[in-house]
Each structure stands twice: as C-alpha cells, then as structure tokens.
Amino acid sequence: MKAVGYVRVSTERQEISPDAQRHALEQWARGSGVELVAVHEDRVSGGVREWVTELADDVAVTRLELGDRPGLRAAIEALRELGDGCLVAVKRDRILRDLEGMRVIQRLIHPARIIATGFAIDESTTLGRFAVGIVDLMAEAERAQIRDRTEASLAQRRREGRRVGELRFGEAVDDGGLVIPNPDELAAVELMLELHRERGWGRRRIAIELQRRFEDSDRQRYVPRGERWQPGTVGRVLARANNSEEHS
C-alpha cells in the first residue's frame, strides 16, 4: 500500500514539531510495510473552516474552503491520482479540527483511507467509525474551547483599555500597555475627512496631499505608518470612519 503523509504545525501552539511528525510518519511506514510516497506540510492554525453552502438545481452544495492549506490540497490531489492508499498523519486533528470537514476529506480521497499513527482502529466496522467520529468531534470541541478562551481574554483586555491586535489609525500605546490617542494621526484623520467630504477628493489625491504636508513640516507632522502615505491607508481610514458613524 502507498501512503501520502501530512504534517501541520499550528501557529497558535506547537504540540509536535514538523520534524518529529515526519519522523513518526516514516517510522510508521517502515513498521507497517507501507511506501510513503510524499509528505506535505502546512504551517497554519487549525481554526474555523469557512463553509459555503449554496442551492443549485435543487441540490444543496457545500464547499469547504482550503485556501490556506496548500499542503493539504496537494496531499488530497496526490491520493486522488494514486486512486487508493491512505492519507496518514500523527493525529487526526493535524488534518482538520472539524467533524464535517473530516468527512468531506474522506469522501474526496475515497477509496483511500485516513490513518492516524497514534490511533489504530478498524474503521471498516460500525463501532470503529463511531469511535473515529467521537475523536473528530472532540478535536472540534477542543478547537472551539480554545477560541472561546481567546475571545474572553481579548474582551477582558479591551475592557481594561489594553492593546488588542493591530492599533487603529489614531491610536498609540503608553509604557503601561494602555491604548491612548495619537494626536498627530488624529489630525491626519481629520484632514482626510475634510478633504474627502468637503472637497470631494479621492484617496489617491488625499495621500499625495498628506505626503506633501509631511515633507513640508520636516517630517514632524502627518507622519505616515511606513515610508510614505499610501492610498490604501487613506481608504481604510475613511471606511472605518464611515462605519463608526453609521453605528453610532
């Protein structure tokens, strides 16, 4: 039998390093008499999958977005070309932490199977498939708990006025980690709004004007985040200001 290996390292936490996962797959293949034809790798969190369901010709079609998993896509394609064999990982949750997603992967690679080196069970039986479903469901629940804890921690930091993620334009952080206003950036925001709303200027023209004022002030005022003012930055600031007013 031939096998395609899959290795994933989470950006959130790293229980097993890539090298350790590859070594475990190679040991399993040698011990099982299986030819490991390739090993594909992703470095990405096992976060929430983006499901898209559409109704087409009275048929509900659900798509599993795997744009952030080139390694997994390559492993699936390799197995589909083989037509048989197995997709092997050290743990099932290295592939996906999603019960429905794992079922989709299994259908995509059929008649090949999914094998976890640390979870030997006969999936040809009803009880075996039940056990595998429980394992996948537990992985999905663990991922949800991690997300809940992270969101609760971020919410608490927001309540304390501490920085969460990227600073918005017009914000700075003091020595204690608290978010405070950035007077120069707030002045730039005010100028953007004035030029856009009162003069009808577009973001590119506004970026040029901000850059001119920045250079005329000996680079002391209207300081950009980066080497120079970009139309994209102006567009994001204007969009955020419009959204804030709509929800105020």
Keywords:
two-stranded antiparallel ribbon, 8 strands, single chain, 7 helices, four-stranded parallel sheet, 17% strand, elongated
Termini gap:
62 Å
Order of helices and strands: EHEEEHEHEHEEHHH
**Can you list the strand order of the major beta sheet?**
2-1-5-6
Beta-strand content bin: 15-25%
Q: What is the fold named in CATH at topology level of the largest domain?
A: Rossmann fold
Structural class: alpha/beta
Topology, number of strands:
8
Whole-number tally of structural domains: 2
Give the biggest beta sheet: 4 strands, parallel
Any overview of this molecule?
This protein is of the alpha/beta class and 248 residues long. It folds into 2 domains: 148 residues, Resolvase, N-terminal catalytic domain (Rossmann fold, 3-Layer(aba) Sandwich), CATH 3.40.50; 76 residues. It is 48% helix and 17% strand. The chain is built from 7 helices and 8 strands, in the order E-H-E-E-E-H-E-H-E-H-E-E-H-H-H. Strands 2-1-5-6 form a 4-stranded parallel β-sheet, sandwiched between helices. Helix 6 packs across helix 7. It is elongated, with a radius of gyration of 25 Å. The protein starts with a strand and ends with a helix. The relative contact order is 0.09. The model has no long low-confidence stretch (mean pLDDT 83).
